[in-house]
Amino acid sequence: MLKLRLYLTVLIMIVAVSCGSDLSDKGDQLYKQGKYEEAIEAYSEYLETYPNNEIVIYNRGRSYEELGQFDEAIADYEKVLKIDDRHMNSRLGLASLFYKNEDYPSAEIILTESMKISPENPNVYALRGKVNFQMSEFKQSITDLSNAIKIKPDMAEAYYYRGLAYIGTNKKSTGCADLQKALSMGIDVAQNSINKYCK
Fold this sequence. Notes:
Oligomer: single chain
Helix content: over 70%
């Protein structure tokens, strides 16, 4: 009888985990298909059973972000960071949303903390470079973007913003060279800046 109970308990746990996994997988598939509202429903249903699954919370946050529901996305990214404060994708997601909402000081704080956790992550440097550019901290922007490029030389957007930052420090020829590089790497908007600053 004890063996039967143990067997049934294990079987129930396997079925529960399997159902939860199915919901998580369903959410992932819906996200890939661009069905973000349905993905949120699947992730939320999964989280009713497994409320601290940081991957699913993060994925739901991404879905909210895709729908422009930034407050909900921020809440999910912050929840992930309460579970694991080193979760770099949530840190970048949160900083990116602060950037989009023009809350540059908050983005800068998160990114500076993130550099201590992941000092070789080019995305952290690139985003902080953009943040510093928006705050007219051109020298710091150049330093951050140069670090991003050093780690990942094919980071076209970093060349674009570094070019603008150089122009902001009156280093026109260096800035224009970066803008040309960004244009050659597929950043089409660089042409507008070249026309404006480099003619």
